[in-house]
C-alpha cells in the first residue's frame, strides 16, 4: 500500500505479460475490485513495467518468482471522485475507515 499525491481515487500498478491469456488473469483482480468499490478506479490502473521500476517489490515478485498477481495498491492522499465527474464534483477526502476497508 502506498500513498499517492498526484492522482485521485484508489488504483493499482501491476505487471503485464506478453501472453494474452495471462494478461487477462493479471488484470482480473483490479477489475473485480473496481466493480465492488466506488473508491477504486480501474481506469487509473497501469500495468506497464518501466525500467526504472525493475527493483520495486511487485516487479521483482513478477519477474524473479513468477507471481503474476503482484500489485502496488495506490491510495490517493487527495481523496477520490467516487464515480462522479471530476469536472463537476471536487474530490472527497478519504476517511481512516476508507483506507482500512481497502486494506
Fold blueprint:
Elements: E1 2-4, E2 10-13, H1 20-36, H2 57-65, E3 72-76, H3 96-102
Parallel strand pairs: 1-3
Antiparallel strand pairs: 2-3
Structure characterization notes:
The chain has 103 residues and is α+β, with helices and mostly antiparallel strands. Helices cover 32% and strands 12% of the residues. It has helices spanning 20-36, 57-65, 96-102, and strands at residues 2-4, 10-13, 72-76. A 3-stranded mixed β-sheet has the order 1-3-2, with no helix packed on it. The longest helix is centred in the first third of the chain and has 17 residues, at 20-36.
Computed structural class: alpha+beta
Chain-averaged pLDDT: 85
* SSE order, one letter for each helix or strand: EEHHEH
Model regions low in confidence, pLDDT < 50 over at least 5 residues: none
Cross-sheet strand order for the largest sheet:
1-3-2
Straight-line distance between termini: 8 Å
Summarize the main sheet: 3 strands, mixed
- How many helices? The count is 3
Number of strands: 3
